[in-house]
Specification:
single chain; 824 residues; mainly beta; Maltoporin, Chain A; 22-stranded antiparallel barrel; 5-stranded mixed beta sheet; 4 helices; 3% helix; globular
Length: 824
């Protein structure tokens, strides 16, 4: 039998209370926290990075089981679900992130699981079965982590097997909206040198919005996760780790709720149809909305293998990390957001039924338009946009000491390759409704007799390769009592990207005289150019090369106070925009009437950042008070900005905006006030500005762009208090307040009024009973509530839907439940 040991509770900006750990507060000081942010185990206080680490214990207290749970808990970090795929997360650190999710674009925040880079943000919302730690590295990480870390990096570290003895942990959670979760882990020593660890997780919960139409309810989810870890200490100096994980995520996407009716724009794609007759609008969160057609389920499946081999020599270590992952995603979305059909109405609108139905979905469609492209008696099929992706990577690291440990180093090489297909075909329904015209005396007649149907098919193939060599060296010169440490890092990267696009885009008017192809209305009204939005096997490719450098100077003022100054560089790979309506820059004006001078095949360039940071890491009052803080200034060149074309539903452009600047301040404070009271405060300030951008004509356009999801102020304040400590157990309470300032929901300044997200404060609480002896092990329980005050807050907003100038996805309302743990 093995009783759980006290784990490290301290983390930068916060501690957590383990469900099984005895009271920390009887100790005189905060415990040391070990992190691997620099690819080696070291104290958090010795790591010159603005870093927040969630230990296993704090993950439990905060109710964190996946990346999506930490979005409001770390200042400078915002996490939002991708609106039409809830298994995909949009992650921003210090206001740097990506607003769209495409296989041809990379996010600027790197996600790593046990050192393995996860290329696609699809699937990052999945729960991880058994996390030991999450590390959030704020700011560019261009030398050790490489490309696509201009915003920062997030490390997810899982628990490893141990040969020390059998360990078992079981957790059950039950809560409102039929929440049920089971997490099980079992550690089995197979010999003195081999151990295996098994983990399984299942969680189910209903969404908070009822679908009053046909199909599933918005936000319902059912997740399964499995993981097998094997540890083999082959010799005293050679060890092997193998991991296999599989996750299955079945869910129904959340739904936009509409706030303000649309103000029509003459000639715009979004105003092709009259969409607001049956749409409901509200400034508050609605508990019920409906779909016209059956709301279909979505699925994300992920499977991965990772192999790590570590060999220790006298003065250095060699580590190899190899991994393979594959992803399958099938996501269904309905952006209609109206009310269900009335008796006698048909969603097919085949000219014998109601003409006033508005749809924005990929479900089955029958009628004139379908027969026009499919043949007599045929219907357009239900289509799920699908993503198939596979990636593999290899990394070799050599780390050690030189010159009597005055030089610490890590050098290595990295190779990555991925192939993927995004299949949004065959030709299917996308948008339909009564024609929206403005002809005096005829508008009503035409709208009642003419229906516009837009049909779409898209397929994208990609193949990406990346290779790099890197090194980082830290020198402690024999001066100043060994208190000065100088670090130099460098990375050379080569990046190759290629893609092929297929697209068929057809618009048909259904009339009493029969179907009429009016695709030219999306091509500037030119009847001779009705295929302007079609792509037939259009290839594109780009190569990128980059050298990024970093320099850090650290000085130990005392054994407990360290200051540092750093200069770091990073780059984000360029790519291609699948939602660009133009093949290239020779097609003239885009769908919003502007000539941008570039299209899909032209792609966009890499993004570069140089960042300067001054920081302090300190422990005071006999290590009862921890204060870590930094100020930083970042300069971005060729910054990539995604924006939706005015008057369109899904047409976007990605441009290298030119230059941008960011200034910020971050502080993390942890205070062990008494033996029973622990208080934490994390605060971040951001000041962002796009300083230089030019349009296709060379005119200054810097005022047209803003930073996406960059709140000026954000903070988290929390307190842990031990109510009672006894031989039979311990009772404690945790209360936290998470504040997020207002932030932009888009990159164009002209859209801010409709896409800005208002500020919010979330209060969370937990009452715990822990460390109760039971059946040879330990028992624990916790009552918890998230968003205790039931705050209404917005996760994301758009202004481009045909039925509304402002539509939002609301955050989770009050959620509450109970956890029951057993550990042996």
């Amino acid at each position: 039998m093995k009783v759980s040991k006290l784990k490290s509770l301290a983390a930068l900006g916060g501690l957590g209370l383990s469900a099984f750990a005895p009271s920390l507060y009887a100790q005189a000081a905060l415990e040391e926290v070990i992190v691997t942010a620099q690819k080696k185990a070291e104290s958090l206080q010795d790591t010159p990075i603005s870093l927040t680490a969630f230990s296993e214990d704090r993950l439990e207290v905060e109710g964190i089981s996946s990346l999506g749970d930490i979005g409001s808990k770390v200042p400078s970090l915002t996490i939002e679900p991708f609106p039409i795929n809830n298994a995909t997360l949009r992650i921003f650190i210090r206001g740097i992130g990506i607003s769209d999710a495409q296989i041809t674009q990379d996010p600027p925040v790197g996600i790593y699981v046990d050192g393995v880079y996860i290329a696609r943000s699809t699937g990052t919302a999945l729960d991880v079965a058994d996390l030991q730690r999450i590390e959030i590295l704020r700011g560019p990480q261009g030398t050790l982590y490489g490309r696509n870390t201009t915003g920062g990096a997030i490390n997810l570290v899982t628990k490893k097997p141990t040969t020390e003895g059998i360990e078992f942990k079981q957790k059950f959670t039950a809560g409102n909206r039929d929440l049920f979760t089971s997490k099980s882990t079992l550690n089995l020593p197979l010999s003195d040198t081999i151990a295996v660890k098994l983990a399984a997780m299942r969680t189910m919960q209903d969404g908070h919005i009822e679908n009053t139409g046909p199909g599933g309810d918005f936000g319902d989810r059912d997740v399964e996760g499995y993981r097998v870890d094997l540890r083999w200490d082959i010799t005293e100096s050679l060890a092997m780790d193998f991991a296999y994980d599989k996750s299955d995520f079945d869910y129904y996407n959340t739904q936009y709720q509409h706030v303000r009716p649309r103000t029509p724009i003459a000639g715009s794609q979004a105003d092709l149809v009259a969409a607001s007759q049956k749409t409901t609008y509200s400034n508050s969160r609605q508990k019920k909305v409906g779909t016209v057609t059956t709301f279909e389920p979505s699925t994300t499946d992920i499977e991965g293998y990772a192999f790590t081999l570590t060999k220790d020599f006298e003065n250095f270590q060699v580590k190899y990390i190899g991994a393979y992952r594959e992803l399958f995603d099938k996501s269904y979305a309905d952006l209609g957001g109206g009310v269900p059909l009335e008796p006698g109405e048909s969603p097919h609108a085949d000219n014998s039924e109601s003409k006033d139905i508005f749809r924005l979905d990929s479900n089955e469609y029958c009628g004139q338009a379908a027969e026009f492209v499919m043949g007599p008696g045929q219907c357009l099929p239900l289509v799920y946009p699908k993503v198939n992706q596979e990636q593999y990577s290899h990394e070799l690291q050599i780390s050690g000491d030189l010159f009597e440990s005055r030089v610490n180093y890590i050098v290595g090489a990295y190779y990555f390759k991925e192939e993927a297909t995004e299949d949004n075909g065959p030709l299917h329904h996308q948008l339909s409704g009564p024609v929206n015209v403005d002809i005096p005396g005829l508008s009503g007649v035409i709208a009642n007799n003419v229906r516009a149907v837009n049909m779409l098919s898209q397929i994208y193939d990609i193949e990406n390769e990346a290779a790099a060599v890197f090194g980082q060296f830290t020198w402690t010169p024999n001066i100043l009592e060994d208190r000065l440490h100088l670090t130099f890092g460098a990375r050379h990267s080569e990046d190759k990207r290629s893609t092929v696009k297929f697209q068929e885009d057809i618009t048909v008017a259904e009339t009493t005289l029969g179907p009429i192809d009016v695709s030219f209305v999306q091509c500037g009204g030119d009847p001779t150019n009705g295929d302007c939005r079609n792509f037939n096997n259009i290839p594109a490719s780009q190569d990128f090369s980059n050298d990024s450098f970093s320099f850090v100077a650290e000085y130990d003022l005392t054994d407990d106070i360290n200051i540092y100054a750093k200069r770091v560089e990073a780059y984000k790979s360029g790519g291609f925009n699948t939602r660009d309506p133009q093949q290239d820059g020779n097609q003239g004006p885009a769908t919003d009437g502007n000539d941008y001078g570039f299209g899909y095949a032209d792609g966009f360039d890499a993004e570069y950042v140089t960042s300067y940071e001054l920081g302090i890491k300190s422990e005071l009052m006999d290590r009862r008070l921890r204060i870590n803080a930094d100020v930083f200034f970042s300069e971005y060149e060729d910054m990539q900005l995604n924006f939706i074309l005015a008057g369109t539903v899904a047409d976007t452009k990605v441009t290298n905006a030119g230059e941008a600047e960011m200034f910020g301040f971050e502080a993390d404070v942890t205070f062990l006030a008494t033996e029973n009271l622990l208080m934490m405060l994390n605060y971040a300030y951001l000041d962002t500005e796009v300083t230089k951008a030019t349009d296709v004509n060379g005119n200054d356009a810097s005022d047209e762009f803003v930073f996406f999801s960059a709140p000026e102020h954000s903070f988290t304040a929390s307190a842990d208090y031990t109510l009672l400590q006894a031989d039979w157990g311990r009772t404690s309470v945790n209360v936290s307040v998470n504040y997020m300032d207002e932030r932009n929901g888009g990159s164009r300044a002209e859209n801010v009024k409709n896409t800005q997200l208002r500020q919010y404060e979330l209060v969370n609480a937990r009452l715990s009973l822990t460390d109760v002896p039971f059946a040879g092990g330990r028992l624990a329980a916790g009552l918890w509530a998230k968003n205790l005050l039931d705050e209404e807050y917005e996760l994301t907003a758009v202004d481009n839907l045909p039925q509304a100038d402002r539509s939002v996805i609301w955050g989770e309302p009050r959620t509450y439940g109970i956890d029951i743990f057993y550990e042996y």
